[in-house]
Every structure is written in C-alpha cells, then in structure tokens.
Write a structure and sequence with these properties.
heterodimer, A: mainly alpha, MetI-like fold, 12 helices, disordered N terminus, B: alpha/beta, Rossmann fold, four-stranded antiparallel β-sheet, 9 helices, disordered C terminus
Chain lengths: ~300, ~280
C-alpha cells in the first residue's frame, strides 16, 4: 500500500499527463461514433507531426534547389578554370539553336517513339505472361527458364545478333527496348500474382466468387502495385537501352546526335542531349509515379 | 453415444461426424483432428476454445469449405460440405478486407457475386454498414480504419449476403482488450437482432463464455473435442452478467478444462463431448 502511494507521489506529474491523453483518446470515439453507442474510434490525426513533416518537406525542397544551383555553379567554374566543358550559357545557346533548327524536336520524337513503342509492347505482353505464370503452374514451368536466362543478359548484348537478323531499321532497336521493358515487368508481375494474400482469395471464395471473378477482382488489383513497380523499372531499363542502341546504330535520335557530335568534338551538343535524356527520363518516371499513387493509393504504408 | 454412423441423417444445422483431418509434414502424418463429433442447432452461438494446435481453425476451415476432411463428414443443413457457399459467412482474424475497395464496396462485394441489382445492393450494404455503426465511414478505404472498425466492416460484409451460418476465426484476436469487449457486446447485439448460427473460434476463455450458448473445449495432439459446456447465462449479456459469480464459475471450469487437460485418447474425448 505504502509503496503504491509512494510511487504515485513520486511520479506525480506523469499520471496527470496520462489522464489528459486518456481524456482525448476517449473523446474521439464518442464524437465520431456517437451513433453506434460508443465503439472504438478511428486513428486520430496528429496536427503537430503533420506540421513537422511539412516543414521537413519544404526544407528538403530548399536543399534540392540549393544543390542544383551549386552543381551548375561548379560546372561553370570548372569550364572557366580550363576544363574542356562548354559553359552553361553556351549549352543553353546551343539548345536554342538546335530547337529553332528543329533537330532537337526531331531527335526527341525519334527517341521517344522508339522507347514508347518498345516499352508499351513490352509491358502489354509482360502483364498477361506474368499473370499466367503466377496463376498456372504449367505456364510458370514453361516460361520461367527462358525469362530467368534472358534476364541475366543485358538486352544490349543481344544487339549485334539482332542487327544481323533484323537489319539496321527501326525494328532491332525497338526489339531490344521491348525486351528490356518486358523482362523487368514480367518478373515483377509474376511476383505480385504469387504474393497475393491467400486470405483475400479465401475471403472472395467464401463470398461466393469463382475463379474468374477472383482473378479479375482480387488478383489483378492486389498485384497492381507490383506491376507498376515493374513498369517503372522497365521504363528505366528501356530508356537506358535506347540511348545505347542509338549510339551503336541509328540515323536519328538523341543517342545518334551525340555520336555525331563526338566526331566533330561538339561538346555543347553532347551536353544538350545528355540533359534532354535526363529530363525526358525524369518526366516519364514521374508520370508513372503519378499513375502509381493514383492506382495504388489504397495501400497501407508501414 | 459415440457411434454415429457416418453421414447419418440429422436435424442439426451443422453436424460434424467422426471427422479426421491429417496433414503431411515431411514424411510424417500430423493429425490435426481426430474423431471430432459435434452437432450445432439452428441459431445457436457456439464458441470453440482450446490451446494452439488443437485444430480449431482447421475445423472452421472444413466447415467453411476451404479445407477437406480426410475422413468423416461435415454436414450443413444435412448436406455434405463441398467448397465454400454463400450460406456460410466467414470472418477472418486478419479482417481480409479488400484494401482497394471502400467500406461500402467491400460490403457490396458478396452482393455483386450473388447478382443483386445495383439499387438493392446499395440498400442492403447501407443497412448492414449502419448495423455495425460504420455509416460515417462508408466511403473510407480500409487503411483509414482502426482494427476494430475493420473487423466491424468484415462482419457487415459477411452479414450482407445473408448467410444462415457465421464462422468466425478468432475475429477479435488482434484487438486490444477494450475494443474487444465492445465488439463482443456489439456482436451479440447484432446477433440478437439478426439471428444466425454462429461458430466462433477463440483462445480467450472469457470471450468464449461471454458470447456462447455452448462452449466447445478442444485439446491438442491429436486435435479433438475435450469437453462441451452449456452456458445457461441469460441474454442480453450485460456487464452485470460478465461480473456475476455464475460467469466466474463457468469461466473457472472452462479455464481448468483448457489449461489443465489430462492427456487422453480421442475416444475418451468424444465420450465426454457426448455426455
């Protein structure tokens, strides 16, 4: 008895604090769940932590901007200090020149056309194949060795063979891009399908759903996050493959232009193309990320 | 009476007859259920309690049609269970809500499968969402809900397709004590308004006594029915009932039955169960 009195006295301020916390916690169910006669409440929002994260976010943005400015400044200083770089204004001027002559747009369209064609066909084929592999053992048994084998080969390593077999037109480039996107996406889709929570499938079954509906209404949405991650990885891989493929064999495109510029020691053009490749890659990735947040916003983040 | 002929005719809503279930574990046969016999009548609330590994979840999966018996029969309305069916609603411990669907769409899922027209689907879903007190959260995604609210949504989803049987596998097992007590009371309230036959698996002796007409105690190795105890406490079960000496007495008896089990054979067990 005495010990408990002592501990209460000693921890005086703490029980007081607990009481306040308990009071707010109890207030939530009453106010939100009044109709059901007092049940457990929803997780209560915490304004303080939200404000802190927003502060953190804007601080991050500020640091990002600072870092970019410093990077460009360093580049500028280096080019003035005798490195063989073009200065930022030179690159901007070159970009303007390439734009007004129409070369830049032409190259961008050529490169984007290839990458999007390869990427879209690759993803469009990868998703059904990934689903088949996840759903049917037969499909898994038949596809898996080939996918595992080709996954270990960089798509570019196939380019010499593909060039010989398919000529030097658009087809070989689109094909290696297709392969890059397909391989990244198919494995992710397959893993998504295999990893679908068995309880969700059982829940659908006990509600009377048959295989077709379980597939369309449970397996597909449950593996969407995996598919989208696969598509993002696939797009990155496709973009990387594209530029390299253009360096080796093309008559237009950003990679081809850099290759040409290299011959004439035209560093400003190379810089413009590198920056264009970076920005385009970033934009496409962000677009997929946006789709991801839209389509998979239901996920619980842990 | 331990000799029920397999597949015999029965008036019971659920009839488990001489069920045996084994799993293959690396060249070894694991007996999950051995000679389990149990009759449950219409609108009865039966709780099944026992130590882990006693096969209580296996028994539920068999009744749900998610698992098959190795031997013996599981009958619902006199017909052998073969696969899941809409007349048996199942509530899982992990809620198993579809996270990409709102509360409303989750509740409507089974109705859609059953082919209800849109307007009627809406209306039924609305009714059951209200019944579990989630009307303000009808358009929220599961990630916005607390554990207790998720389980209430799962209960509404199971109820909506109008099953005559509810199979609940430790539905409140993952919830804190306070929420658990509230949901127990709510479940009984819902059950008294919309009568169903309920089989409720739990490892919580208090919960088993509080909810049930009858408590089935199971034992492990092999999984079998160890004891069946009638709970003669009146409904509605209020806090008063929970704190009554009769409740304490039943709880003590079942506690002893669960935690101080004398090792025995399945034959002894089913003899006790039928006594």
């Amino acid at each position: 008895m005495t010990t408990s009195t002592y501990s209460v006295a000693r921890n005086g301020p703490e029980p007081g604090g607990d009481a306040v916390a308990a009071g707010t916690a109890a207030a939530v169910p009453v106010s939100t769940d009044g109709t059901s006669g007092g049940t457990d409440g929803p997780p209560s929002p915490r304004p303080t932590t939200r404000r802190r994260t927003m502060d953190k976010k804007s601080r991050l943005r500020l640091l990002n901007a600072f870092s970019i400015v410093m990077g460009i400044a360093t580049w500028w200083v280096m080019s003035l200090a005798g490195f063989q770089f073009p200065t930022p204004p030179e690159v901007v001027a070159k970009a303007g020149e390439m734009w007004s002559s129409g070369i830049l747009q032409e190259d961008i369209l050529a490169s984007l056309g290839r990458v999007l064609t390869g990427f879209l066909i690759g993803s469009a084929l990868a998703i059904p194949v990934g689903f088949l592999m996840g759903w049917y053992t037969v499909a898994r048994g038949l596809f898996e060795p080939w996918i595992q084998f080709f996954r270990t080969i960089p798509p570019l390593a196939l380019l010499p063979l593909v060039l010989v077999l398919m000529g030097i037109g658009e087809l070989p480039k689109v094909f290696v891009i297709f392969l890059a996107a397909f391989l990244a996406c198919v494995i992710s889709t397959y893993q998504g399908v295999v990893g679908v929570d068995k309880t969700l499938i059982n829940a659908a079954r006990v509600l009377g759903a048959k295989d077709g509906r379980i597939f369309a209404r449970v397996v597909v949405p449950a593996s969407t996050p995996f598919i989208l991650v696969g598509m993002r990885v696939g797009l990155g891989s496709a973009w990387a493959t594209l530029v390299a493929a253009e360096l080796l064999a093309a008559q237009a495109g950003l990679g081809y232009r850099m290759q040409q510029a290299q011959l004439y020691y035209d560093l400003a053009t190379i810089f413009v193309d590198i920056i264009a490749i970076g920005i385009l890659g970033l934009v496409m990735d962000r677009l997929l990320l946006l789709a991801e947040t839209k389509l998979t916003g239901w996920q619980e983040r842990r | 009476m331990t000799t029920t002929t397999p597949g015999q005719r029965t008036e019971a809503k659920i009839s488990v007859q001489d069920v045996r279930k084994t799993f293959d574990l690396k060249n070894e046969e694991f007996v999950a259920l051995e000679r389990v016999n149990l009759d449950i009548s219409d609108n009865e609330f039966v709780t099944v309690v026992g130590p882990s590994g006693c096969g209580k979840s296996t028994l539920m999966n068999i009744l749900a049609g998610l698992d098959e018996t190795t031997a013996g029969h599981a009958l619902v309305d006199g017909a052998e269970v073969s696969g899941p069916g809409p007349e048996r609603g199942v509530i899982f411990q992990q809620y198993a809500l579809f996270p990409w669907l709102t509360v409303r769409k989750n509740v409507e899922f089974g109705l859609k499968v059953a082919g209800y027209a849109k307007a009627e689907r809406r209306e039924r879903a609305e009714h059951f969402i209200k019944l579990v007190g989630l009307d303000q959260f009808a358009d929220a995604l599961p990630k916005m809900l607390s554990g207790g609210m998720k389980q209430r949504c799962a209960i509404a989803r199971a109820y909506a397709v109008d099953p005559s049987i509810l199979l609940m596998d430790e539905p409140f097992g993952a919830l804190d004590a306070l929420t658990r007590v509230r949901l127990q009371e709510q479940l009984l309230e819902t059950w008294s308004r919309e009568k169903r036959t309920v089989v409720f698996i739990t490892h919580d002796v208090d919960e088993a006594v509080f909810l049930a007409n009858r408590v089935v105690v199971m034992a492990a190795r092999p999984g079998r029915i160890y004891d069946v105890i009638d709970i003669d406490l009146p409904y509605p079960r209020t806090e008063e009932v929970r704190l009554s000496p009769e409740f304490a007495e039943l709880r003590n008896r079942i506690w002893t039955s669960v935690y101080h089990q004398t090792p025995g054979t399945a034959a002894d067990a089913s003899a006790t169960a039928r006594a």
